[in-house]
Amino acid sequence: MAAPTHYLTKRDLLHGPKTSPKALVAAGRDYLAREAFSDALDFFEKARDAEAVKEIKRIALERGDSFLLARVERYDRILVAESDWERVAVTADKNGMSSMAVFARKRIAPPEAATPGVQPIEEAGEAAPEKK
Questions:
Q1: How many CB atoms lie within 10 A of CB 76?
Q2: 80 half-sphere exposure, CB direction, 13 A CA radius
Q3: Cα–Cα nearest to 22, from 48, 59, 41
Q4: What is the DSSP string of 45-91?
Q5: Which of 3, 5, 18, 129 has the greatest number of CB atoms lying within 10 Å of its CB?
Q6: What is the rounded distance in angstroms from the CA atom of residue 72 to the CA atom of residue 60?
Q7: Which residues contact 105 (CB under 8 A, 6 or more apart)?
Q8: What are the pLDDT digits (tens) for 71-110?
Q9: How far apart are CA 69 and CA 105, in angstroms?
Q10: How far apart are alpha carbons 27 and 53 in whole angstroms?
Q11: CA distance 69 to 67
Q12: Contact, 42 vs 72, CB < 8 A?
C-alpha cells in the first residue's frame, strides 16, 4: 500500500486505532522514498521505530535541516547531542540555509545574561513573563 497523499487519509492512517505498527512503518518508508521526511518521521514516531528515527536524524545532519533535527530531538532528547546541532549548523551554512544555521546555533548558545530592568524579547511560541 502506498502512503496516502490526501491529508485526511494520512490522518486516518496515522491515528487510526486499527493501524498496525507494520503499516505505519511501511507508510513511513514510502514517505521516506518520496523525500517527505517530516511525514515519514510522523509515522516512524507513531510506530516507535527507533532505528528509522535515527535514519531521519542522519538525513537531517547530512542536509543541514535543523527543523527536522528538532523534530527528532522532540521524539528523543538523548538522541540529539550538542555536537549534532553544531554539525547541522555548519552544513546548513554550507548549503546556503542561513535561517536553519541560525536556529541550530540558538540551540547550542548559552543563555544570555539578564540585564536588570530589560525585558527579554519573546520567542515565537513562548508566553510573555507575568508581571507581578
A1: 13
A2: 26
A3: 48
A4: HHHT-HHHHHHHHHHHHHHT-HHHHHHHHHH-GGG--HHHHHHHHHH
A5: 3
A6: 9
A7: 85, 89
A8: 999 999 999 999 999 999 999 999 999 999 999 999 887 7
A9: 13
A10: 14
A11: 5
A12: no
pLDDT in tens, 17-49: 999 999 999 999 999 999 999 999 999 999 999
List Cβ neighbours of 44 (8 Å cut-off, separation of 6 or more). Answer: 24, 25, 28, 52, 53, 56
How much is the pTM?
A: 0.78
- Which residues contact residue 66 at a Cβ distance below 8 angstroms, ignoring those fewer than 6 apart? 60, 85, 88, 89, 92, 100, 101, 103, 104, 107
Residue pointed to by grid coordinates 548549503: 95
- pLDDT at position 61 over 60: yes
pLDDT class for 51, splitting at 50, 70, 90? very high
Q: Is a pLDDT exceeding 60 seen at residue 123? A: no
